[in-house]
């Protein structure tokens, strides 16, 4: 070997050794950042602190003796800071009770005789609003005939206009219970006010928290104090991270029986009422152990595409489907255009079942 080749080899060895030293230091730094992240989490302080980051950069620039210029040093360290921040975020995720990293086994929720999140797929159906005993009973009878175990129906309706039908309130919950008892169906209804919870859970088997209230933290906390299963809808413009944190509000209060439901998000698209975010299904299933359902009615607002969307949701791993059914949608007091009538519901169910995606 020539002298030149010898020194090349030597320098390469030194570079390799330096790389390993850098790696060791980076790992040490990440561990320190992890410890810091834990302390910050306990104190409720955010990880990213721009003032502190600036101070660290200033110190490094002051100490920079070259040969890298200041801009390069700044760039390199900013990347290191970013990596530490990402690591802290991943660590926080592990600490969420709803996280699959925290609980690898899927949560299965028993409602009456029905398991949600278990081996079998689940169908939840019923009118947008409970309007009368007769109307609810007709739907209840159809569900019983079709073997659908959970009846939905809104009694406290969060309407866009205060002049629109606001729901029957507690009377609506009582009707739901009467029909549920008559046909052996579990019931689900949206509650919008924490003050109504205590009374409501005498009548319903599942508390629905609607899209507009996903960020109503007092309601989430109050639902977390009950031991009644909760169906939490994704907010109109909520990220999946916000959605899971909303669920965390409930489970952190001790009520671990939470089901998530994707119901479409607001986008610029006008040909559907909302945009069904199908990617949310596998991501939520991966990130969380909670059951994940898809509301095909509110996400699309279109009766003509309910079956393909339900099939897509099941193919993506959804544990169940929610759909609105009304004996006479044309005269429904809310969401008249998007509810299926009873024969349409039977067709919808057959089509979904025939796909083989709805697990028995
Ligand atoms: C509902 O399911 O009755 C409802 C109002 O849906 P969302 O909260 O998803 O709009
Ligand atoms: Mn509706």
Radius of gyration: 27 Å
SSE series: HHHEEEHEHEHEHEHEHEHHEH
CATH architecture of the largest domain: Alpha-Beta Barrel
Class from helix and strand fractions: alpha/beta
CATH topology of the largest domain: TIM Barrel
Distance between the termini: 73 Å
- Round the mean pLDDT to the nearest integer and report it: 96
**In the CATH hierarchy, what is the class of the largest domain?**
Alpha Beta
Would you identify the CATH H-level superfamily of the largest domain?
Answer: Aldolase class I
Give the helix tally.
12
EC number: 2.5.1.54, 5.4.99.5
Pfam families: CM_2, DAHP_synth_1
Protein name: 3-deoxy-7-phosphoheptulonate synthase/chorismate mutase
GO molecular function, one term: aldehyde-lyase activity
Overview of the molecule:
Keywords: Isomerase, Transferase. GO terms for molecular function: 3-deoxy-7-phosphoheptulonate synthase activity; aldehyde-lyase activity; chorismate mutase activity. It comes from Paenibacillus peoriae. Its EC number is 2.5.1.54, 5.4.99.5. The chain has 360 residues and is of the alpha/beta class. It folds into two domains: 93 residues, Chorismate mutase (Chorismate Mutase Domain, subunit A, Up-down Bundle), CATH 1.20.59; 246 residues, Alpha-Beta Barrel (TIM Barrel). Helix content is 47%, strand content 11%. It has twelve helices and ten strands. The strands form two sheets. It has an eight-stranded parallel beta barrel with strand order 3-4-5-6-7-8-9-10, surrounded by six helices. The protein has a two-stranded antiparallel sheet with strand order 1-2. Strand 4, helix 5 and strand 5 form a beta-alpha-beta unit. The protein starts with a helix and ends in a 6-residue tail after the last helix. Manganese (II) ion binds next to loops.
């Amino acid at each position: 070997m020539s002298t030149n080749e010898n020194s090349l080899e030597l320098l390469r060895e030194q570079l390799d050794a330096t790389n390993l030293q850098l790696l060791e230091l980076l790992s040490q730094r990440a561990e320190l950042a992890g410890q810091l992240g834990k302390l910050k989490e306990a104190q409720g302080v955010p990880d990213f602190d721009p003032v502190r980051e600036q101070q660290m950069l200033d110190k490094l620039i002051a100490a920079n003796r070259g040969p890298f210029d200041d801009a390069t040093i700044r760039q390199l360290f900013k990347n290191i800071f970013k990596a530490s921040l990402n690591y802290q975020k991943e660590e926080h995720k592990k600490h969420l009770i709803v996280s699959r990293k925290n609980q690898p086994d899927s949560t299965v929720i028993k409602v009456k005789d029905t398991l949600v999140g278990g081996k079998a797929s689940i169908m939840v159906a019923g009118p947008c609003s409970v309007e009368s005993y007769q109307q609810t009973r007709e739907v209840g009878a159809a569900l019983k005939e079709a073997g659908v175990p959970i009846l939905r129906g809104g009694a406290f309706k969060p309407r866009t206009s205060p002049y629109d039908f606001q729901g029957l309130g507690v009377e609506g919950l009582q009707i739901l219970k009467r029909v549920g008892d008559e046909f052996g169906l579990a019931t689900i209804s949206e509650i919008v006010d924490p003050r109504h919870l205590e009374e409501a859970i005498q009548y319903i088997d599942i508390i629905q928290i609607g899209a507009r209230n996903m960020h109503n933290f007092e309601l989430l906390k109050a639902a977390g104090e009950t031991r009644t299963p909760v169906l939490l809808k994704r907010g109109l413009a909520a990220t999946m991270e916000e959605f899971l944190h909303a669920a965390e509000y409930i489970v952190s209060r001790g009520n671990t029986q939470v089901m998530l439901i994707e119901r479409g998000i607001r986008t610029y698209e006008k040909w559907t009422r909302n945009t069904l975010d199908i990617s949310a299904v596998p991501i939520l299933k991966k990130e969380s152990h909670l059951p994940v359902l898809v509301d095909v009615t509110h996400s699309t607002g279109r009766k003509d595409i309910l079956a393909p969307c339900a099939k897509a949701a099941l193919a993506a791993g959804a544990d169940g489907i929610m759909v609105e059914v009304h004996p006479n949608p044309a005269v429904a007091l809310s969401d008249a255009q998007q509810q299926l009538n009873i024969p349409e519901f039977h067709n919808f169910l057959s089509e979904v079942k025939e796909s083989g995606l709805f697990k028995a």
